[in-house]
Automatic annotation (TrEMBL), chain A:
F-box domain ranges (all copies): 39-85
Biased composition, class Basic and acidic residues, residue ranges: 11-20
Start and stop residues of the ARM repeats: 431-473
Highest classification ranks of the organism: Eukaryota, Viridiplantae, Streptophyta, Embryophyta, Tracheophyta
Residue ranges, compositional bias (Basic residues): 1-10
Protein name, UniProt field: F-box domain-containing protein
InterPro entries per record: ARM-like, ARM-type_fold, Armadillo, F-box-like_dom_sf, F-box_dom, LRR_dom_sf
This protein's record includes keyword Repeat: yes
SMART domains recorded: ARM, FBOX
TrEMBL record, chain B:
Assembly and oligomerization: Part of a SCF (SKP1-cullin-F-box) protein ligase complex.
Pathway this chain belongs to: Protein modification; protein ubiquitination
Location of this chain's protein in the cell: Nucleus
Protein name: SKP1-like protein
SUPFAM superfamilies named among the record's database cross-references: POZ domain (SSF54695), Skp1 dimerisation domain-like (SSF81382)
Source organism of the structure: Salix koriyanagi
Function statement: Involved in ubiquitination and subsequent proteasomal degradation of target proteins. Together with CUL1, RBX1 and a F-box protein, it forms a SCF E3 ubiquitin ligase complex. The functional specificity of this complex depends on the type of F-box protein. In the SCF complex, it serves as an adapter that links the F-box protein to CUL1.
Native organism taxonomy: Eukaryota, Viridiplantae, Streptophyta, Embryophyta, Tracheophyta
GO cellular component: nucleus
Length: 514, 183
């Protein structure tokens, strides 16, 4: 039972009849040979067997397994287990960061929550960190963000949102530009004013910048954006006070622009048309919920022009997106899933699909929160279906936002906790309950809590509650209600409560399962 | 209504040690012999054996062989692994995600802790990715939120830490347990 033998079998082209039994003559076997499996000694197994098991555990269980014996302690600190950290559900302060620093040498990807955690990032001493995603960063300051940028010069991806980062200014963006020349993605929500100086610094220093989003800003220098010549994907969703005439002239000349998102802005019809028709490489223009444009647009206009698509709330998004990826129009309702299958074959299309999912998950979450009356029909027609599709995305943050959006969009009156029966049943009829229950079973706590919350809210509707109970949802929620993650436990308990309301027989069932 | 005599090809027999010749089926399927470390012989259909990447590449390297020795695998976990793979073949022929999930869940639920733990190295050795995934997840579920002591006994591990080392570990891991209610 050695790793070497297995590899040899998998890769060797030589004929060797003795190959299976040849473990004794591999010099690099070391102590890994175990004679029999009857008396299985886990500490004597090939490293990768145990490391693989570690990868199925959350941080608490990893800690417990590491604390069993010396061998597991060593295996549990294998760099490959610590290339990504999600510390949103842990108290991530300087003390924690210092404890983790010995394991952070290989850290590539970090997710954190809140300003205090942001202050602790530097203490991780993870100099190779290339991806940082911050949630609830309302109180993160310029000073903190500048320090993070200065200490992580390998940074390729920085995402702060979807909550607005009110205290961040263009000063920090300039520091990021100067310190992080490898930056590829920069997505920040709610920086009040993004100055030309900051954008020009990005244009000058970050020559590999591909994806930029300045969302929910009060002002962004539209002329300077025209200097971001490497950018392929640009989003200004929810940003106000843009001068659309000049913006559309300048942006349509961006030499590499493939995807542009101007959703929830006051863009005009003529600017949409200019961008759509004259941007040379543009493939996707997203203009969802843009009231000025929608008032002017002719409902019969075509949304597909020379291989470019325009996505609005009243065209068929599945069909339009599908047309980008395939000529045929079969199986239209499942187009987004379809691109996941074709993705691997074409990397540029892969990037487009990934970006569209990201943009939609943000848009849907935002409109689920604000719940504008004029989008009622959109939810029924395709919004709900889009959410279910995004639940199956390969991007974890997209899945989380989709689950969060489902939890939010079914509640139409916060004060009285009224759940819209039509919306709830739409989710149910399209297999949403099963998808959410699967996510709730995920070992990733972010998904667990969002999915549990969605099930909890949906279960206010009695038909949905029955469906949840029928497919074994009570057991899943009962399991989550015991979670040591308080957030997960609370959402799950809420779900159980909603399932029990008004149906006596279920209370018994829930008590039995607890 | 079909009687039991005209059983369709898809219903593979469940016996592992002494399979009967499948006279009813139209085309005879090739059998492959696997030999466990405790010298038990398993005759399995070729399609099942090809689920084991290790066995598959063994055959690619030496096609004329008729018995594959598995010196690191004992009979009991091997028979369970074969049982699992037979079912997977059926799902390959007739994809039904819901049924497959259900089967996979039941497969692990009815196994003892020891059975699961014993099968992992076998699945790993034979490179059966799906099974390994199911097993790892099942073990992860069983040790979730359990104490260090519990995990030790689950895997049959002896504590080889000194008291000082244990104290150091507790400090080192404190962050991971933050907010956990002791129960």
């Amino acid at each position: 039972m050695t790793r070497t033998v297995r590899r040899k079998l998998a890769h060797s082209k030589e004929k060797n009849k003795e190959i299976v039994g040849s473990d004794s003559d591999n010099p690099d076997d070391g102590c890994l040979c175990s004679s029999t499996i009857c008396d299985l000694d886990w500490t004597a197994l090939p490293d990768d067997t145990a490391i693989q098991l570690f990868s199925y555990l959350n941080y608490r269980d990893r800690a417990s397994l590491s604390a069993t014996c010396q061998t597991f302690r060593l295996l549990g600190s294998s760099p490959c287990l610590w290339d990504s950290l999600d510390l949103r559900y842990h108290k991530f302060d300087i003390t924690t960061a210092q404890l983790l620093s010995s394991r952070s040498k290989n850290l590539q990807k970090l997710r954190f929550l809140g300003g205090e955690s942001a202050d602790a990032i530097i203490s991780l001493e993870a100099r190779d960190l290339c991806e940082i995603s911050g949630y609830f960063c309302r109180d993160i300051t310029d000073a903190t963000l500048s320090m993070i940028a200065a200490r992580h010069v390998m940074l390729e991806c920085l995402q702060l949102g979807p909550d607005v980062c009110e205290r961040i200014t263009s000063f920090a963006i300039r520091v990021i530009a100067i310190c992080c020349p490898k930056l590829k993605r920069l997505q920040i929500s709610g920086v009040k004013v993004v100055t030309g100086e900051a954008i020009n610094a990005l244009a000058k220093h970050c020559r590999q910048l591909v994806e930029v989003a300045f969302m929910e800003s009060d002002s962004v220098d539209e002329f300077a954006l025209g200097n971001l010549t490497s950018v392929q994907f640009l989003s200004l969703a929810g940003t106000k006070n843009l001068k659309w005439n000049s913006a559309s002239c300048v942006w349509s000349k961006l030499p590499k622009l493939v995807g542009l998102d101007v959703s929830r802005t006051d863009i005009t019809f003529s600017s949409v048309m200019r961008l759509f028709l004259s941007s040379q490489y543009l493939k996707v223009l997203v203009a969802l919920n843009c009231p000025v444009f929608e008032a002017e647009v002719d409902n019969h206009m075509t949304y597909n022009h020379k291989g470019k698509i325009l996505l609005t709330v009243f065209n068929d998004i599945f069909k339009a997106v599908g047309s980008l990826f395939v000529d045929i129009t079969e199986n239209e309702s499942n187009m987004l899933s379809y691109w996941r299958k074709v993705k691997s074959t074409d990397r540029s299309m892969d990037a487009i699909a990934t970006w569209i999912e990201w943009i939609f998950s943000h848009f849907l979450l935002r409109i689920a929160e604000n719940n504008p009356k004029e989008l009622d029909a959109f939810w029924i027609k395709q919004g709900a279906a889009l959410l279910l599709d995004l639940l199956q995305s390969s991007q974890e943050d997209v899945q989380e936002r989709a689950a969060n959006s489902i939890a939010t969009f079914v509640v139409i009156d916060d004060e009285n906790a009224t759940v819209d029966a039509q919306r709830a049943e739409l989710v149910m009829q399209n297999g949403g309950i099963r998808l959410l229950l699967d996510l709730a079973r995920s070992y990733r706590e972010g998904l667990q809590s969002e999915a549990a919350k969605a099930i909890a809210n949906l279960s206010v509707d009695s038909k949905v509650a029955k469906a949840v109970a029928d497919i074994g949802g009570i057991n899943i929620l009962a399991g989550l209600a015991r979670s040591v993650n308080r957030l997960v436990a609370e959402e799950a308990a809420g779900g159980l409560w909603n399932l029990s309301v008004g149906e006596e027989h279920k209370v018994v069932e829930i008590e039995a399962s607890l | 209504m079909s009687s039991s005599t005209d059983s369709p090809t898809l219903t593979t027999e469940t016996t592992q040690l002494s399979p009967q010749p499948d006279t009813e089926t139209a085309k005879p399927t090739k059998k492959i012999t696997l030999k466990s470390s405790d010298n038990q012989i398993f005759e399995v259909e070729e399609s099942v054996a090809m689920e084991f990447a290790t066995v598959k590449s063994f055959f690619e390297d030496s096609p004329s062989t008729d018995t594959v020795p598995l010196p690191n695998v004992t009979a009991k976990p091997l028979s369970q692994v074969i049982e699992f793979c037979k079912e997977q073949i059926k799902f390959k022929a007739n994809p039904d995600e819901a049924q497959k999930k259900k089967y996979n869940a039941e497969f692990v639920t009815e196994k003892s802790d020891k059975d699961l733990v014993d099968m992992i190295p076998v699945a790993n050795y034979l490179e059966i990715k799906d099974l390994l995934d199911v097993l790892n997840q099942a073990v992860a579920d069983r040790i979730e939120n359990k104490s260090v002591e519990y995990v030790r006994s689950f895997f049959g591990i002896d504590n080889d830490f000194t008291a000082e080392e244990e104290a150091a570990l507790r400090r080192e891991h404190a962050w991971a347990y933050e907010g956990v209610d002791e129960d």
